[in-house]
Amino acid sequence: MNQQADGGSDQAHRMNALAAASLAEARRAWPYALVLAVALGAVIVAGANHSNATPSRDRPFGWPGPANFENAVAMVRGDLVIAATLPALLLGATALSRRDPPGGAPARIHAIIGVDALLVVAATLVAATIGVVGTFKTPPVAFQAFVVAHALLALSFYALAFFCAGVFRKHAVALALALWLTFDSLYEHVAQTAVMRQVGYDQLIAGNFPSWFFVAQAFSPMSAYRGILILWDRKFMDYVERAALGNAALPLWMVPSTFVVFTLAFWIVLPLALACLVRRVRARAASKSLVVRREEAA
To answer: How far apart are CA 279 and CA 167, in angstroms?
Structure first.
């Protein structure tokens, strides 16, 4: 009976600790989620108004077509990437305090990841809803594609930043920003430059992309996000993508679900799992070191 009572007491203590850790993380993380939601939603609305104000050949005072959700997103895709990734990046990079022990309780780490992921997804839903209110029309497929693509994009950079925080606690923010710049500025431009030099503009417009370019899209969270978004709803393509991909013969595997699965496994689950593994190994090493010091002192 005493053992059962002790077991129930330990379980209740763990549940209380988990609830306390979740509440503490929610209090820390909600400002980041609020910034993500407001910034992402505001950029959509700005894109809707900007699409009708930018001159084009077909319309002197705006892009062809109404200021709907899809036109708005296509107009400001680069800004949407910044609004979705930077708050999530900082949220992940600051998730583990320097004052925490090297390992930290596994339950607390899991609570941090769970609460942060829920807040990021909720913020993306709020942002999409703001976009629906601020634009002319939003087809259901556009809403679904936007939420999934941007939630996975934000979670990808959250996971990369969390990995930096778990492995390099003192310089997590700087390293996370370096990764962000690498994928946003270097990888994308290097891949585009390489394909343009290999096949030339005429071949690109004809849709003759080299096979390696399609594969390379999965090895950057930015490229994978673009694959989810524009393959799910092709009206999210900008003019360059419509000209280049309109006649392209895409491989059978190049569908949104492929990029969704790859993003979840490679850019979200893997970095988080590695961060938790590193902290667990460090915790065991610290525990063994403490036992050795106590034995030596005795």
So the answer is: 7
Assess if residue 127 is contained within a domain: yes
Mean pLDDT in residue range 80-85 = 96
For residue 180, give its domain range: 10-297
Domain membership flag for residue 3: no
Residue found under tokens 């290097």: 190
Residue 141 phi, psi dihedral angles, 5° rounding:
-65, -35
Burial of 169 (0-12, 13-18, 19+ CB in 10 A): middle
- DSSP letter at 252? T
pLDDT for the residue numbered 68: 87
91 in a structural domain:
yes
Query: Does some domain include residue 1?
Result: no
**Would you say 66 and 135 are in contact if contact means Cβ atoms under 8 Å apart?**
no
pLDDT tens-digit series, residues 154-208: 999 999 999 999 888 788 999 999 999 999 888 888 887 888 888 877 777 666 7
CA dist., res. 2 & res. 134, Å (int): 62
Residue of higher predicted confidence among 211 and 58 = 211
Residues 224, 258 contacting (CB under 8 angstroms): no
Q: What is the DSSP letter of 194?
A: H
- Cβ–Cβ under 8 Å, residues 24 and 97: no
Please check whether residue 58 is in contact with residue 64, taking contact to mean a CB–CB distance below 8 angstroms.
yes
Question: What number of CA atoms fall less than 13 Å from residue 247's CA on the CB side?
Answer: 9
Instruction: Work out how many domains the chain is built from and give that number.
Output: 1
Cα–Cα distance, 127 to 120 (Å, whole number) = 10
